[in-house]
Structures are given as structure tokens and as C-alpha cells.
């Protein structure tokens, strides 16, 4: 049975001393969700190219994280760990074929992006261009640009050589330049 | 470090310039304007990747509807069988690559909703292809690498199930070549530019998809 977990409320940060073990585990987990949910969701989105699937992958990732939370050590290892789980969940989702629909949607339509310095038409254009990249090219780019992973960390995450990572990153940007300049 | 080396190495990590790269840039206006443009592009990419986040985390498991499980499994099996089958024929290397590729992308076969037109157009445009209105209902689209070329990978809805279409403008073939096994079949079709691969189950009408695609595909310069 899946644990019932609340999203952390900003005001009720647990006070250290009186916590039960379960309470501190829950607090640790809630902090983890609050901190990394956007990263995990976005990574899943660019893998699955679908919002509903990305939500499912992110959810499954955190459920697995919950089960393994006791084994979690240093804070700096949390994100790579979560990204690895998300990547596995994405693969697993397809393996088991437990999925509903695959469609490429316009993510801008989901909520407004008044915060961005770029107009939303530009973001749509760049996203469309990102969709034209093959998965092999897009994924290292996402890991580098969105999460600031080094090329050796990307190599580790993807299980490929660092040289291959450099090549893919370079070609990915070349393709984006071509696609985006062609549209103007 | 020459200009090409600089551009390549900076393209791999535009925000992390080494001292060697900086030195080159100080003395090279061509490369420094290249890098400036690249860094603007980088900011656009970063903004675009930050899609709005949805899904309050974590919630109780939502049941996945058991959709066309059997179909997808069958078609995946087919791809594997096709792989074995295709080896012995002419144009076999291409056919084999197509079949292998399908096996890697089983998700293409299970969607039922039409993809958004802008995404479809963008992927096709990447391979200098356009699809005229009135074409087939496309339920999945991806840009794939096949034998070193950008290959639009589409799933097309038909009344008897999905058919996968790979547009192969760089792959010229001499003539049509079909394959059939266990109720599933694939066809390589010569096109105005290169070729097209169409793969479906036994129930699906490949000819219908082939003629529809042939009449609606336009090759761009
Ligand atoms: Zn130079």
C-alpha cells in the first residue's frame, strides 16, 4: 500500500526534538519532494514528451524514493539519485506498456509563463525545435542545461562514454541552431 | 586550436569556457560572435526546458488504464520477427535498421490521440518534409536517428489499428519491398526523395496509408 504523504506546508516545519522516527522520515521526504519535484517532473517531461506521463513518472519516482529514503546519505547525491530513478521509471513504463497516450503537447498551454524573459511564442518555437532532436541528443542537453550536470556526470547517468556525450551535446546545439534559424 | 575545433568544443559546453578557448576568442572576432550567439541560444534553451511543472507530488497511484496492451506486445514481437526476416532480402540493411528501430520505440504503437500539428510540422520540417492538410491522423511523432539521418517516426491511425511510418528521404531504394509474417507486415516504398517505411499488423491496410502518405507528403528545399 502506498504511503499517504502530504505536500509540505510552509508553516508547519517540524521542530527537531520531539519527532518520532516516522515523523522525521516524513519531514525528510517532504523536504525532498518540495526541493526536487520540479526537476524530476521536467526531466520526465523531456523524456516522455507528455505531461500526463511525466506526472506519473515523477510520482512513481517519489514513491520509490520514499521506500529507499532511509538509505539516503549526502544531500548532494539526492538529485542524481532521483534522476536515475526517474530514468528507470520512464524505461519501465514503456517496458510494461502501462501507459495511456503519447502525444506531444504545447507545454505553454498548461499554465502561463509570465515570469520568463522570453516571449511565450519564442519558448514554443524552441520547444518545437527541442522535440525535433532525437532522444539521444535531447537527453544529455536536458541534463546539462537544466541540471548543470558535468559531461562526466551525464556520461554516468546515460551509461555512455564522455566523448560521446560531448559529441551529442555539440550536435544537439548545431541542430537547434539550424532548425531555429530556418524558422525565422 | 583552430576555428572549427573551438566552435565544436564550445558547442558542447557553451557556459564553461576554458582558458585555451578564452585566449582564442580574444583574438578571433569570428569565433567570439559565434560564441555570443550560442550563449543567447543557450539562454533560450534553458528557458524552454523549464516547462511549467504540474502534478502535486506525490499522490496516490493513479491506475493506468490497460490500453492496447496485447496489440503493442504483438507489434513489438513483430518488429523482432521482422528483424530476423528482413536480413535475407535486398535492401535488407535498411529494412533491418527500420525493424530494429521499431523494436526500440514500441510506445509509438499504442497512442490513439492525434498529436499537435505544430509538433508534427516541426519534426517533419527537421527532415525537410511537409504534410499537406487532409493527410492521415498522426498519433505519435518523434525525430529519430536512423543510420545517421534524422528520421521522422510517425504512427498513423487507421480503422484497423496503428501503422508506423518512417520517412527516409536519404535512403534511396530501387523498388517496393514487402515483408509478411504472422499477420504482420512492413513495406519499403520509393518516394520522390528517398523512401518511406510503413509497418503494421496483419489487420492494417498498408496500401491505404501508403497512398495517403504519398499524396500528402511534400519535400521542402
Ligand atoms: Zn576562431
List strands and helices in order, with pairings:
The complex is a heterodimer of chains A (184) and B (221).
Chain A: H1 21-48, H2 51-68, H3 78-96, H4 120-132, H5 135-147, H6 151-158, H7 162-183
Chain B: H1 3-12, H2 19-26, H3 29-49, H4 69-86, H5 92-104, H6 117-126, E1 129-131, E2 137-146, E3 149-158, E4 161-168, E5 177-181, E6 184-190, E7 195-201, H7 206-216, E8 217-219
Helix pairs in contact in B: 1-3, 4-5
Would you write up a description of this structure?
The complex is a heterodimer of chains A (184) and B (221). Chain A has 184 residues and is an all-alpha fold. Chain A has a domain of 85 residues: Rna Polymerase Sigma Factor, Chain: A (Orthogonal Bundle). Chain A contains seven helices and no strands. The N terminus of chain A is likely disordered. With 221 residues, chain B is of the alpha+beta class. Chain B folds into two domains: 79 residues; 130 residues, Protein Transport Mog1p, Chain A (3-Layer(aba) Sandwich), CATH 3.40.1000. Chain B is 41% helix and 24% strand. Chain B has seven helices and eight strands; from the N terminus they run H-H-H-H-H-H-E-E-E-E-E-E-E-H-E. Chain B has a six-stranded antiparallel sheet, with helices on both faces. In chain B, a hairpin with a 2-residue loop joins strand 2 and strand 3. About 14% of the residues of chain B have low confidence. The interface between A and B is large, with 75 and 63 residues. Zinc ion (ZN) binds next to helix 1 and helix 3 of chain B.
